[in-house]
Amino acid sequence: MDKYAEIVAFVASAEHASFSAAARTLELTPSAVSKLVTRLENRLRVRLFTRQARTVSLTEEGNAFMHSARGVIEAMAEADSVAESLPTSVRGTIRVHTMFTFAKHQILPWLPDFLAEHPDLTVEFHVGPQFVDMFDQGIDVAIHSGILPDSSRVARKIASSRWIVCASPDFLTRYGQPATPEALRNLPCLGFSFKSDWNVWPFQLDDGTLVGIDVRGKVNTTQGELLRDLALKGAGVVRLAEFHIADDLASGRLVEVLPEHQDHTKEPIYVVYPSRRNLSPRVRAFCTCLETQIRTMPWNG
């Protein structure tokens, strides 16, 4: 039942003293206006108009109701006016759930400039290695990679990144490059402490067969950044996302292990929203900037 439409029909009819004239103003039929007013009277259990052949006039009760009805319409008009200004207003707090490594290496570098451009905006990070649906707890947007769980949420691919098995030059000097993927089982490796496909390292054999090496980590943790730090210190072989270690590879701080056998499949990175409809201006602004920044990254593609 559209209570607001009933009030609009009532006020128009009172102002024009006619259902027909009100109908022309509202672009409805006279019978539609009459039905809306009758529905309002039935709901209030009071007669609001005295009906004559071509005109209507307010009853005593109708006059009493008119002030409140006009207040409702004015309040709705004010709300619409405020709403019309929202799309150009980037303000408030945006709550982002993402991987710590992605936040540190792919968001933080451009975030100060973004916040300077939008001084009324604040950003709140909630970090974790895997996607967890926290939208009911106030999260606005999530950014995660890999296979996402089945959900009613909306996921949109914004990038893709290889995962690369690597180690520090110091480690490879001490242990040497392994001759085959299987040889990794005899080397200190670093892995994630939770159940994940990230702990199964895919390699392509000489005959083209793709095999997965289930590596048991010498050190295991939930955070890829700790694994990177350990690898840089020569603690073991690690497999991490290229978006995470691209600078380390480019500078030579980390070196690919078994490059001729590495799988070049890229893992998708998604931005996840609670709904496709009516994204807030702050979410739109943040995601637009994010996609602009990572679109040209060498690791993305």
UniProtKB/TrEMBL annotation:
Source organism, top-level taxon: Bacteria
Tagged with keyword Transcription regulation: yes
Record bears the keyword Transcription: yes
Pfam family for this entry, one: HTH_1
Alphabetized GO MF terms: DNA binding; DNA-binding transcription factor activity
HTH lysR-type domain sequence ranges: 1-59
Species whose genome carries this gene: Caballeronia glathei
Alphabetically ordered keywords of this record: DNA-binding, Transcription, Transcription regulation
The protein's name: LysR family transcriptional regulator
Family, as annotated: Belongs to the LysR transcriptional regulatory family.
